[in-house]
Each structure stands twice: as C-alpha cells, then as structure tokens.
Design brief:
3% of the residues lie in helices and 47% in strands. It is mainly β. The strands form eight sheets. The chain has a 22-stranded antiparallel beta barrel. The two termini are 46 Å apart. The N terminus is likely disordered.
C-alpha cells in the first residue's frame, strides 16, 4: 500500500527518549514558571521562551522569573542599537527560534515575518522576495534583489542562501530598500546572518542530536575556548541528512500510441545514460549537508580587536524537481494516475556544491566615540549539478498530434516524449568583498562613512538538453562555456543621525555606486535547430526522413560522447561557437532621508524616504533571428547580448516602536509606500519576427516569432503596505509573539505583457482564452499576446499574512522546566506570475493556507535539554514556486508534516 509522504516512521531512539521525558515530567507542578533570563526579545513573532546561547552555561538559576522583555540589539544602521529605538523596519531572529521552527537555511524564514517570501529555483537558486521585490534569474548573469550578508559583508551568489545557518547570534531581516548602508542589490531589503563570536569570559560547549521523520538525522557541535581574557576560539559544526519525501521511480517510458504509429517495443524512449536506481536517501527533496566554522577573536590591545573566521559548507543533496499539482489536475485529462507525489525520473538529481569562506573583521577604537572598522571576505563557491527538468511528465495521448512514419519535411505536431535535462558540469565563483568604515557615536551625532569594493570572477560550464523534438524526434542542446565573467562593484557612502533637538533626530545618507560587468572568452556551442542531427556527433545515423528505415534514437542509443558529458568536442558538428566578449557599466546615487521623534524613553515615531538600485546587465551573445531571416533590419544573423537597464525603488514609510505595559509589551507598526520602476524580469521574451514560407497554423500561431531567454525591464509597480509586530509577557511565565502584514502591490504600467499561460487548455478548463497574437503596426508588440495586467499583483505577495506563537514555562519541584510552544501562521493567496489567473485547474497561485507548529521541551536542572516537535502539524502541502507545464501546473513544494526529537547536552 502506498504511503502518503507525510507518514511518520518513528525511530526506536525517539520512543525510548520520549518515555524518559514522560517519566521526568511526572513530578508535581509548582504554581510558578519563568522565561529564561538568557532569552532575547525579538520582533515579529520570533519570540519564545528561548534558552541561552547554544552551549553556554545558564547565567541564572533555573526557574528565575523575568518580568520585563529583554532588549535585543541590532546592526541595521551599521551601529549597534536597541531594536526598538532603531528607525528601520527590521526583524531579528535568534538561534533558539531558528532551531525550534526547524529553520536550517534562509528558505525556512519564508512566511515567518511580515512580507518575506522565499522560493526555490533551478540550479540551486533561491528567490528571496521582500515586499514583492525579488529576482528570478539564478544564473551567473543574474543578481538578487535582496542582499544576503554574513557578518555584515555582502555575499554575491543567490546559491549562498542554501548554506546552513548554525551557531548564529541572530539573523536580521531589513525590509525596504537599503541603498545607503547595505547598498549592492538590496532594492527589496537585506538579510544579515550574524555568526556567534568567540567569548572571552568562559569555556563551554554543547552537543545537540536530532532525529525525525524521513530518517532525519542532525548533529550540532559547539565548543568555545577562552584561552585567556584576550584570546578565544570557537568551533562550530553541523551535519544533516534526510531522505526525500516523494515517491520516486525510474522512468522507462515506452510510448504506445498505435493510432499515431508509436508502437511499444520494450525499449525505453527516454534517455537511459544516467537512469540508475537510487535509494530514498538520494531521492529529490533529500538533504545531505554539513558545515563547519572556526573563529578566533583576539583583543590585541584595549583598543584593537580582530576577528578571523573560516567557514566551509558542503551540499551533496539531490536538489528538487517540479511536481504536478494533483489537486488542480483532478477532474481533467491530466489527472494524476498514481499517488500525489509519484514521479518518474531518468536523471536522478545530484549536487556537489561547496562554499569556502574566510572572513576578517578588524576594529580600532580611536576614542570613546570614534572607531575604524575594516572587514574583508574571500569566498570560493564550486558547484556541479544535474537535474531532471521534465519529471517524467510526458505528453498524454490526447495531446500527441505527430504521426509516424514522418514525411520528408517532418511532422511539426506534438511528439509524445519530454526528455529534458540541465547540467552544470563545473562552476567556480571567486569573490573578494572589502568594506572600510569610520564610525562616530557622539551624544548628538552618529555617523557611519565607508568605502565598499567587491570583485567577483566566475566561470561555468553549463548545458541544457532537449532530447526529443519535432519535426523528426532529434535531440538538441546548447553548451555554455563561460571561463571569465567578472563583476566589479565600488561604492562610497555616508549616513548621519543628528539629534538637533532633545527629542528629534534627523537622518541623512547617500551612496555612490559604480557597477561593471564583463564577459571575456565566453563561447556558446550547439544550438536549437531541431532539424539537425549534430547532437549525435556522427555516432548514430537515423536514416533519411521520408524513406524506409528512418528512425530517430531510442533511450539506449545515446552515448556519453554525445552532448555535455562529451565536452566541447561533442558539439563540433554544430559549427563554430558564438563568441562572448562584452562589457557594460552603470552608475547611481541612492539616498535616505529620515526623521525620528522620541515620544518617551521607550517609544519612537519615525519616517523615512529612501531609494534602492540594482545594476543592469546583459546575457549571452545570440542571434535574435534564431537562424532565420528577420523582417526588420538586416536579414540576419542579428547578434545581440540582450542588454537590460537597472531597476530602482523609492520607498516612503512611517512607523512606531514602543515598549509598553511596564516593559512587558513591545509593539512595532510600519506603513509604507514603494514605487518600483524598470523591474527586471527573466524568461522567454520576444526577440524578432521572421519570414516563414507559409501562414502559421492554428496550433502554432506565433511560428513567425523568435523568443529568447533574456532579462527585460518592465513596467512600474505601486506597493503600499502595513506591517505589525508584537511581543508580550502577560505573566512572567507566558510569552506571546505575533505579526500581521498587508500589501497591495499593483502593476501600473506594463503595456507589452504577453499572456501565454497554459493557452492550450484555457478554454477547455473554463478560463478566459489567451489573446490572439498582436498583428498591428507596432513592431515592439509583434507576436505578443497582449493582455492588460494593470492592477495585477506582483508574484509572491500574499495580500495578508499573520502569525502568533505562545509559550509557557512550568517549573517542577525537582528543578525541571517544561515549555510547551505553539505557533500558527496564515497567509493569503499568493500568485507566482504577473498573470494572476484564478482557475480551478491551471491557476498560477498558491491558495491561502495555515501552518501549525508545536513543541514540548524539557530543561533539566543540570546539563541537558530535550524537545519533541511537530512541524506542519496539519500536513498542508503548499507550493513555493509554480510553472506552466503544458496543460497542468508543476511546482516546487514545501515539506510535509514532520515530527522529531532534539536532545542537547551543555558542558
């Protein structure tokens, strides 16, 4: 019998330890409980009855009550300040909260605070969206719209968001453009991961073990060594393994549609070169990662301190594969035939990604008010990866229109097999990031001025294959050999906070940025000419179309000397490669104006007007005419790099922060309005209109239009919203946190939007049909299926989100503490494209949903702690990304229900 992927297989260890916990908890309960003295007050529902820094000895006796919220400090203004007195919209998340909610990397933060959504993407990419502003280009060409920083230093690659977050002081999420102090690629906001520093005051350590659903096993180790009062070391390590939760099968598809001439012969029609059986531990959606960090902190003198750290992250997981949305497909001819999470794979996923980073931070305190800080990071990211792009979702018989045997001119109808693969054979991203800051912290003036320089040199060998194509069933492929792509970014910035009156502070900041991108020696091999047999590399001969004996390949006739694994030499029959040699640069001044009013010692009212900017770019050199004859301009080829311009954001916000009810309630409220211009969107867009020999058929009305994968600038978007965050101690032993957000992003100006979402089935499923291709006089709209999306919402912007969590600490007579915790989060419907199509079967949205998490932790009076937990208790399956799969929807999915047990030992 098939099991739902959320079926739990508890381990014997979990059952045994659970029994011990129940026995320990049998002591009489006293009418008293507490919030740990070491727990940190944080914003946006990230509050809980947290424990001390992992591995650190408890600073106060177990059970000692805290009657006021403890203030957390943040670095959102590059000067450490009280979160509730910082005039920036920022949420801080402690390590305790990350662990409790099962958050192991940045993706886990999605939906846990106002207006933050995070999606998985191809090529180990991560799409982070804050207030609707994100980026969907995960390649070496693209840039994120939300800056990822580690220890305050910019991390350039979006794949870096997959790195495990472990042993951190906190994670700070800044919402709104951070174009002055954080700068590069922070149009939507910034995420700053702050690792825990070595401590001078004591030596301590911890070991944490975790087991859970789908054979989850995790080990966390921390050891702090205070050598003396001036030198300390800290070693942290983590390892996590988990099986994939899908039902993955091998793909041996042997097409049998006799009425179309496709006769099953016992030989698979899909590529078998990499089709090997793998265990559940190697299924897609598994985890196989580890990381280690060694940090040294040295107080050279009373005024000079140096922090040096080395960190390594390794990901050997399978990655993710797009899965059909069976709920939407139900009741249609595309309905799932097996289980909801069945998938047929002929290319098991494999990722080999490592990130090695050295970070250095040198602080020189010139006086009580002045300091100089120099930070530098050198990182090398290496990655190879292979992924099954089709997931075994082949055309169903009613879709197939091609017929065998094909005539001499071929058959341009729909063929029955999808067999597509993406392969990163090798990639290496080397980056240097430098930042020099001068800081002044006077009574009336606070100033941060600095210089920023980032240089990144990237190389990648990447290929895509589509192995069965009309009109003859031939394979096609392109191989991108990019040995030297460079990005150079420089900036100078300054921001001052001036207390010009006893209760008034003005903020003025500006940043000048210069970005340059260069491609040297790049070559693009292969092509998308589906009438060529070049992919076979002379090793397979299908015969002559239209003559007896003609037969394209089957799944066992492709060899390793064909396609990407044959290297560049396998593409020699395609002809010479396209050469990439190009460079462009951009300059921009971004700024911030602010005004803060101290309403009391514990309350502020603030407002700001700020701007953000993300540099433009360009793609791979390509023929816009697609090898055909263009109608406009020279007949072809017309080579272009498909350049695009920067995008900008202007944001106005007004907010309130206060510590109320005798410092037992913190409240943060921010209203904002953003104007997002020249938004960068990546996808298949119009490149040229070309001559064809005869009118386009009804099933291919745009046969005279060439589309190319590229980034384009589109439209203007207005984004108003509201964010509320609450943290409350109603009693010394109870803690309540919560958040609420509202956002109403609306497209204002995008006249060239082309509606091509699932056009082949829209009428069949009761949706508004796609528009007819444009045939008017405007050449910029040629071939586009123009649809007015004025008023539509940006992707990944649920209109409303809310969350609440509650914890209560009970004290037992024998010194134990028991802490139940419950978290409920809800979010509104969220679209994944600008089309915003509401339909029961081909919607581009994730419906509104609720997630429930809970845990029960037991803290001993000595050195150990244990916690039972359930995440996604209602087993609500939700998408974080979706795509048009030609009649149905495919998506990347969040995890099903998981239960587990954590045990930590402090020493």
């Amino acid at each position: 019998m098939k099991k739902h992927p959320s079926d739990v297989r508890p381990t014997g260890i979990a059952v045994a330890i659970a029994a011990v916990l129940i026995g320990c908890a049998s002591a009489p309960v006293m009418a008293q409980s507490s919030t740990s003295e070491d727990s940190k007050q944080v914003s946006a529902g990230q509050v809980d009855a947290g424990q001390a820094d992992a591995g650190e000895a408890r600073a106060t006796p177990v059970g000692e009550a805290r009657t006021t919220l403890e203030t957390v400090h943040v670095s959102a203004t590059r000067i450490e300040s009280d979160l509730l007195k910082t005039p920036v919209t920022v949420t801080a998340v402690t390590q305790e909260a990350l662990t409790r909610e099962g958050i192991r990397d940045v993706r886990g933060l999605s939906g846990s605070m106002p207006n933050l959504q995070i999606a998985s993407g191809p090529d180990s990419g991560v799409q982070v969206s804050i207030r609707g502003i994100g980026a969907n280009n995960f390649t070496e060409i693209g840039d994120p719209a939300v800056g990822l920083h580690v220890a305050g230093l910019y991390s350039p690659r979006p794949q870096g968001a997959l790195a495990l977050m472990f042993d951190v002081d906190q994670v700070e999420v800044l919402r709104g453009p951070q174009g002055t102090l954080f700068g590069r690629n922070s149009t939507g906001g910034s995420i700053n991961i702050i690792p825990a520093k070595p401590r001078f005051d004591s030596s301590f350590g911890s070991t944490e073990l975790e087991v859970g659903s789908y054979n989850l096993r995790q080990l966390n180790l921390i050891q702090n060594i205070a050598v003396n009062d001036r030198f300390a070391l800290r070693l942290s390590a983590t390892k996590v393994e988990r099986d994939g939760w899908i039902d993955q099968q091998q793909d041996f598809t042997d097409v049998d549609i006799p009425e179309r001439g496709f006769i099953a012969d016992g030989i698979p029609d899909v590529d078998q070169r990499r089709n090997v059986k793998v265990g559940r531990d190697e299924y897609y959606y598994n985890r196989d990662e580890w990381a280690v960090r060694l940090a040294a902190r040295f107080a050279i003198t009373d005024d000079v301190e140096w922090l040096l750290a080395y960190e390594k992250f390794q990901n050997s997981g399978a990655g993710q594969v797009g899965l059909k949305d069976c709920k939407q497909a139900a009741g249609t001819r595309f309905a799932c035939q097996g289980g909801k999470w069945d998938v047929k794979i002929n290319v098991p996923g494999k990722t080999d990604m490592s990130i090695d980073t050295v970070r250095s931070n040198l602080n020189w305190f010139l006086s009580d008010t002045n300091s100089i800080e120099y930070s530098v990071a050198f990182a090398t990211q290496k990655r190879s990866q292979i992924a099954d792009d089709d997931g075994g979702y082949h055309e169903i018989p009613s879709q197939v229109t091609a017929t065998l045997p094909v005539p001499a001119a071929g058959d341009w109808g729909v063929w029955p097999v999808r067999d597509n693969t993406s392969i990163t054979l090798d990639s290496k991203y080397k980056s240097f990031v430098h930042e020099l800051q001068f800081k002044h912290q006077g009574e009336r003036l606070k100033l941060v001025s600095g210089l920023f320089w980032m240089h990144e040199k990237n190389s990648i060998d990447y290929a895509q294959e589509m192995l069965v194509n009309a009109p003859f069933g031939y394979p096609i492929s392109q191989f991108y050999h990019q040995p030297n792509r460079q990005i150079d970014a420089k900036a100078i910035f300054s921001q001052a906070d001036w207390r010009f009156a006893p209760t008034w502070t003005a903020t003025l900041g500006a940043r000048y940025s210069r970005d340059e991108k260069t491609d040297r020696g790049g070559q693009v091999y292969g092509g998308w000419d589906a009438e060529s047999t070049a992919y076979y590399n002379g090793l397979y001969h299908p015969g002559t179309p239209g003559e007896p004996g003609f037969r394209p390949h089957n799944g066992r006739e492709l060899t390793e000397r064909m396609g990407p694994f044959g290297g560049i030499d396998a593409y020699k029959l395609w002809g010479p490669p396209a050469e990439n040699e190009h460079s462009e640069s951009w300059r921009k001044v971004t700024w911030r104006l602010g005004l803060t009013k101290d309403l009391s010692d514990d309350e502020i009212l603030f407002t700001s007007l700020s701007t953000g900017y993300k540099a433009g770019g360009f793609g791979d050199k390509d023929d816009a005419c697609g090898g055909k004859v263009c109608i406009d301009g020279p007949p072809g080829p017309q080579y272009t790099f498909f350049p695009y311009e920067p995008e900008t954001v202007t944001n106005f916000e007004i907010g309130y922060k206060g510590l109320l009810l005798d410092k037992r309630l913190s409240l943060s409220v921010t209203a904002f309005y953003s104007r997002y211009k020249d938004m960068q969107v990546t996808g298949d867009f119009f490149a040229a209109k070309v001559h064809v020999n005869e009118p386009c058929p009804d099933w291919d009305p745009t046969c005279d239009v060439i589309k190319k994968w590229q980034t384009v600038n589109v439209g203007t978007v207005n984004i108003p919203g509201l964010e509320v965050e609450v943290d409350y101690l109603p009693t010394p032993n109870t803690r309540i946190g919560g958040f609420f957000s509202y956002i109403d992003s609306k497209i204002k100006d995008y006249p060239s939007f082309s509606d091509e979402w699932n056009c082949g089935v829209r009428e069949e499923f009761g949706a508004v049909p796609c528009p007819e291709p444009y045939s008017g006089p405007d050449p910029t709209l040629a071939g586009r299926q123009i649809y007015d999306i004025t008023g539509h919402h940006l992707p990944m912007t649920p209109k409303f989100t809310a969350g609440i969590n509650v914890s209560h600490t009970f004290k037992f007579g024998n010194g134990y503490e028991l802490v139940p915790w419950l978290s409920v989060k809800w979010q509104d419907k969220m679209y994944f494209t600008l089309r915003n199509l509401d339909n029961a079967h081909v919607s581009d949205a994730q419906e509104a949903y609720t997630t429930v998490d809970a845990s029960l932790s037991l803290q001993s009076p000595s050195f150990w702690r244990a916690e039972l937990y359930v995440l996604n208790a209602t087993d609500k399956m939700t998408k974080n990304w979706a795509d048009d799969a030609g009649g149905f929807i495919r998506g990347y999915w969040n995890d099903p229900r998981t239960v587990g047990l954590r045990v930590r030992f402090d020493y």
